[in-house]
Amino acid sequence: MSMGIAHPPVHGRCRSRLDPNPTHLRVRVGLGSGQSGFRRSLLRQDLKRLKGVSLPRSGAHRKLTAEDRDSVYDAIQNRPDITREDLLAEVDYRVKAMSIQRLTHDMGLRKWRKMNRPYLTPIHAAKCLAWALAYRHFTPEDWKRVFWSDETTIERGYGARKEWTSIPPRYQLQERESGIQMTPSKGKQTKQMFWACFRRSAKDWFNSFIRRSYRGS
Prior knowledge:
By secondary structure, the protein is an alpha+beta fold. It has helices at residues 8-17, 24-31, 35-48, 66-78, 84-90, 97-106, 122-134, 140-144, 176-179, and strands at residues 112-113, 115-116, 147-155, 164-165, 180-181, 191-199, 203-211. It folds into three domains: 1-59; 66-110; 115-211, no CATH class. The chain is built from nine helices and seven strands. A hairpin with a 3-residue loop joins strand 6 and strand 7 (203-211). The protein starts with 7 loop residues before the first helix and ends in a 6-residue tail after the last strand.
């Protein structure tokens, strides 16, 4: 009678009962196993193991192919600030968010918080200096003919939501588009935009435009 697939304890009892020079016949007779069951259960399976240690479970089949994993990697490289929801859309939602997290961890990719936009960078300072040198010959009368305008948006709420990127902090300043949080807000609260235009002598115009946005709009 064949004994089927033998367990590790059976292998241990088999080795403990044998002499230093066992033969197939002695092992098979000692375990009470048929020839086919002995070869399948002990010999072939034992060749797959390392020093009698059981093999790990194979687990479920991978739902993501090599092309899917390459697509996820390319999407992160092209858009370092891509969200996990967008990565799930890249693979047609065949896996859960935790699977995407494990996949990016295996790739050696992680997320950092975007640094806040600096008030003045060396590039901006150089541009400001170049602008000042270009108009240094202006007289007070010339500046009276210059009009200045600016605008800003104020949103009701707790502030801008923090954004994340796969760019390391030491490279975020160079990769400004994907490494620095430039957008003031991503909320759905009521917003109000202020715009003003003025000159050196007095303020000429001041306007405000109310823009309302609701959730789902």
